[in-house]
Design goal:
Layout: E1 11-14, H1 21-32, E2 35-38, H2 39-47, H3 51-57, H4 60-72, E3 80-83, H5 92-101, E4 103-108, H6 111-118, H7 132-146, E5 151-154, H8 160-175
Parallel strand pairs: 1-3, 1-4, 2-3, 4-5
Helix pairs in contact: 1-8, 2-4, 3-4
This protein binds shikimate-3-phosphate.
Shikimate-3-phosphate binds near residues 85, 86 and 125.
Length: about 180
């Protein structure tokens, strides 16, 4: 069955850091009675250290390898909600994997909103871009890739619970 029409196929949340993927994903999984996974958490568990530490000690390339391995470890699982790291969906192989396994939902939140969340001091190695123009360019380049997701969810306003409901409704509509 095409995973887009399989009611039990996994839901992948994609989008920029600070868009709310983990918060919304956890809520959605609880509501559906499904499992929840977070690719950053899977990487940290497998490597025994934080994402920030991996970037600092061995670099982004090694982080992406570990992230890909974490994603592959989820192959074939059903009734699962996955929050993905903000850079995961940029990879061609990663996008193909998601397309073959389930449905991707892009939490599309504006730069001002995610900046407010990410600037709170949480460790995001790729974020500290001080120049506003570079920041905007980085954000827009990412958006171009995210727009390849199956479904876009407007995350510019609304509580996590409302976003979870919007995803649930869109998923049901696909499977009708
Ligand atoms: C990254 C986003 C982070 C984490 C890593 C790289 C990115 O995840 O995977 O710092 O490239 O956007 P979140 O989107 O959960 O912050």
């Amino acid at each position: 069955m095409n995973p887009r029409h399989d009611p039990d196929a996994p839901i992948y949340l994609i989008g920029f850091m600070g868009a709310g993927k983990s918060t919304v994903g956890r809520m959605l999984a609880a509501r559906l009675g499904w499992d929840f996974e977070d690719t950053d958490a899977l990487v940290e568990r497998a490597q025994g250290c934080s994402v920030e530490e991996i970037f600092r000690t061995v670099g982004e390339g090694r982080f992406r390898e570990a992230e890909w391995a974490a994603l592959c470890s989820l192959e074939g699982r059903k009734r699962l909600v996955v929050a993905t790291g903000g850079g995961l969906f940029l990879g061609v192989a990663q996008r193909a994997f998601l397309r073959g396994q389930g449905v991707s939902f892009w939490l599309d939140a504006p730069l001002e909103l995610v900046a407010g969340r990410v600037d709170d001091g949480s460790a995001r190695p790729l974020w500290p871009i001080d120049d506003p123009l570079s920041r905007r360019a980085f954000f827009e380049r990412r958006r171009a890739a995210y727009s390849l997701a199956d479904i876009r969810i407007d995350a510019s306003h609304g509580e996590a619970g409302e976003l979870a409901s919007a995803i649930e409704a869109a998923k049901h509509a696909l499977c009708r």
